[in-house]
Amino acid sequence: MTRPPRKTAAGYLDGQLLIAMPSMTDKRFARSVIYLCAHSAEGAMGLIINQPAPHISFAELLDQLQIVPGGKGDAHKPSLEETAVHLGGPVETGRGFVLHSSDYVAIESTMRIGDKFCLTATVDILKAMANRTGPKRSLLALGYAGWSPGQLEREIQANGWLNCPADLDLVFDTDLDDKYDDALSRLGVNPTHLVSDAGHA
After folding, report:
1. If we measure between CA atoms, which residue out of 165, 182, 149, 177 comes closest to residue 3?
2. Neighbour tally for 178: CB within 10 Å
3. Contact between residue 158 and residue 9 where contact means Cβ atoms under 8 Å apart
4. pLDDT tens across 89-124, in order?
5. Which of 33, 52, 116, 159 is deepest in the core (most CB within 10 A)?
6. CB of 8 within 8 A of CB of 182?
7. Closest Cα partner for 140 from 91, 96, 80, 92?
8. Residue 90: which H helix or E strand, with range?
9. At 96, phi and psi to the nearest 5?
């Protein structure tokens, strides 16, 4: 079963989720769900949202960056223990990105992605998160997934990815093990019904 890509008004998939087909041969992306932050004629960039980063916690990351958590902040914001660190992709794994809800905006460093999501990659948002003055919902990722011009389109045509609209609950769900199946279910797809060869049901 293959589905045509659901495209945005501009013809690109930024702000949507990419879901790896079960036949994905690249182990780095097996069963991955990727939030596509940017997609244009110049290429694409996204963050894997269902892979934990090995061997590091948010508190340890703050310690490495010499960020000292402040006061109690907003009781409705995530605590240090609740903030997980994800492996966002194989490119620049030493660089951090925060995908977050649009209630937090740093004027000079936040990129808006549609109405509900934003991306910030400066240390200021980590300081805000440490003090519980950051976004209400967030996902911290180390590294990202990148595609050269036309590469993602070719991979989709080769039946490497499905895509669907992103929603806050799925993106920021802390149960990483279920995100892949949940994303497929949004498309009404049963993983056992998917095939590896494009054009065959």
Report:
1. 165
2. 12
3. no
4. 999 999 999 999 999 999 889 999 989 999 999 999
5. 33
6. no
7. 96
8. none
9. -100, 145
Q: Which residues pair with 162 in a beta bridge?
A: 19
For residue 103, the one-letter residue type is D
C-alpha to C-alpha distance for 175 and 33, rounded to whole angstroms: 13
E runs forming strands in 12-137: 16-20, 33-40, 43-48, 85-87, 91-101, 110-113, 117-120
Neighbour count for residue 110 (Cβ, 10 Å): 20
Q: Which residues pair with 145 in a beta bridge?
A: 46
Is residue 164 helix, strand or coil? strand
Ranges of each domain in the chain = 16-50+146-193, 58-143
DSSP symbol at 69: P
| This prediction's pTM | 0.86
Tokens of 153: 């389109």
Fold of 16-50+146-193: VC0467-like (3.40.1740)
CATH homologous superfamily of 58-143 equals VC0467-like domains (3.30.70.1300)
Question: pLDDT for 143-169, tens place per residue?
Answer: 999 999 999 999 999 999 999 999 999
Going by C-alpha positions, the residue among 36, 39, 44 that lies closest to residue 17 is 36
